[in-house]
């Protein structure tokens, strides 16, 4: 059974997605939600706070809480697994494994991993869905030296993030974000037009052993955001989540 705060989040999100609530509409107060759902104010507050943190709602002090531009938002500086992000929003996560094979590294791929051209690399392509709608195409290469059983995994049941973190824990990551026009194949997977921009995140991850993975992550620009929160009051070393 889902926690009560998750049920409140889901109810609010369902109203937004169905069009019953639109950007700028005011959401019920903590007291109103507590009465409607027969929960404590603390439970209602948690539901509202998480929706604000996720960018679904916006809070104006002394005025109330309102529906914001509610495209899902991924963390920019915290590296999280897509399934965790989706479930944290109270939505349903699913995926489809498009390919899972071994390739020979070309010049560019060899440079990413600092290996010789022709070195074998594992390759997977997985589309991740939120409530049945594609929100990320993950095109990933993995160094077999550090994850020799990678291709034996059932990635319909777990994500590459979770598996790689269990066999080669993350110590460093490089990433870059850019807006691009997708190829026809990427557009088809994401269910967008080929002339519609998408967000591409390129990410290389390291463990103590060496370079483990290089991933290209494509998101539909019309229904996805990437953002983050910076806290300069204390050192953030070691605080980011360790998934890819």
Account of the protein in words:
- The protein has helices at 4-18, 30-37, 41-53, 82-88, 107-113, 160-167, 184-190, and strands at residues 26-27, 57-60, 64-67, 73-75, 93-104, 120-130, 133-142, 170-180, 198-207, 211-220, 225-227.
- The strands form three sheets. It has a six-stranded antiparallel sheet. The chain has a three-stranded antiparallel sheet with strand order 1-3-2. Strands 4-11 form a two-stranded parallel ribbon.
- A hairpin with a 3-residue loop joins strand 9 (198-207) and strand 10 (211-220).
- The chain has seven helices and eleven strands.
- Residues 234-243 have low confidence and may be disordered.
- The chain has two domains: 4-67, Arc Repressor Mutant, subunit A (Orthogonal Bundle); 73-227, Chorismate lyase (3-Layer(aba) Sandwich), CATH 3.40.1410.10.
- Helix content is 27%, strand content 33%.
- It is an alpha+beta fold.
- GO terms for molecular function: DNA binding; DNA-binding transcription factor activity.
- Residues 2-70 form the HTH gntR-type domain.
Keywords:
single chain; 244 residues; alpha+beta; Arc Repressor Mutant, subunit A; Chorismate lyase; 2 domains; six-stranded antiparallel beta sheet; three-stranded antiparallel beta sheet; 7 helices; 27% helix; 33% strand; elongated; disordered C terminus
């Amino acid at each position: 059974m889902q926690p009560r705060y998750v049920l409140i989040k889901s109810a609010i999100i369902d109203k937004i997605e169905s069009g019953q609530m639109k950007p700028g509409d005011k959401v019920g107060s903590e007291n109103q939600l507590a009465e409607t759902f027969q929960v404590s104010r603390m439970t209602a507050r948690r539901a509202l706070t998480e929706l604000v943190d996720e960018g679904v709602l916006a809070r104006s002090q002394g005025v109330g809480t309102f529906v914001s531009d509610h495209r899902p938002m991924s963390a920019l500086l915290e590296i999280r697994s897509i399934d965790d992000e989706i479930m944290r929003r109270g939505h349903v996560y699913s995926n489809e494994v498009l390919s899972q094979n071994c390739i020979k590294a070309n010049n560019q791929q060899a440079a990413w991993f600092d290996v010789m051209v022709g070195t074998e690399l594992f390759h997977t392509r997985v589309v991740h869905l939120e409530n049945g709608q594609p929100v990320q195409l993950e095109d990933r290469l993995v160094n077999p030296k550090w994850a020799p059983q990678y291709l034996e995994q059932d990635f319909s049941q777990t994500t590459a993030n979770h598996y790689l973190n269990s066999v080669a824990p993350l110590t460093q990551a490089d990433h870059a974000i850019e807006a691009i026009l997708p190829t026809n194949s990427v557009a088809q997977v994401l269910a967008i037009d080929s002339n519609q921009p998408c967000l591409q995140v390129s990410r290389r991850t390291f463990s103590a052993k060496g370079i483990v993975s290089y991933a290209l992550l494509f998101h539909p620009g019309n229904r996805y955001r990437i953002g983050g929160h910076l806290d300069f009051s204390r050192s953030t070393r070691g605080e980011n989540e360790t998934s890819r």
